[in-house]
Specification:
Blueprint: H1 3-13, E1 23-25, E2 35-47, E3 59-70, H2 73-87, E4 90-94, E5 97-104, E6 109-113, E7 119-129
């Protein structure tokens, strides 16, 4: 399972939405107006230790963004803060993958209003996880 699927499954289990309905992975479709999307992007280099086979990272350090959209600022902000609270400081196993930590890089922030006058608020996270 990919990191996006693991994070999405966790957020769905935490009542952040329903995958494919109002919680999306790797995309934010034009509808519905109120939804959440999780996108991955470049993170830090993998962590290696002496004596470990070349190419066998001990920890990967990817990053991802949670973006919440709604017509009302307060709704988008509340959903983003909820995701922040559910993810920041999390450690443990998600879908069988060990996460050393999930850490917010900042508090939720306003990205923009889109062409349909909907508010987009996001928060970025960094991760340390054992490769699967």
């Amino acid at each position: 399972m990919s990191m996006l699927e693991e994070i999405g499954t966790y957020l769905a289990a935490e009542s952040m939405g329903t995958l494919g309905t109002d919680l999306f992975l790797g995309e934010m479709p034009d509808a519905p107006d109120t939804c959440t999307a999780v996108h991955e992007y470049a993170g830090m280099q993998p962590v290696h230790f002496m004596g470990v086979t070349r190419g066998a990272a001990i920890w990967e350090q990817p990053r991802f963004q949670v973006m919440c959209r709604a017509k009302a600022y307060a709704t988008a902000r509340s959903k983003a803060k909820d995701a922040f609270n559910k993810l920041d400081g999390h450690s443990g196993t998600l879908s069988g993958t060990e996460y050393g930590y999930i850490r917010a890089l900042q508090s939720p922030f306003l990205v923009q209003k889109d062409a349909n006058d909907r508010v987009l608020i996001a928060c970025n996270f960094e991760v340390a996880k054992r490769p699967s």
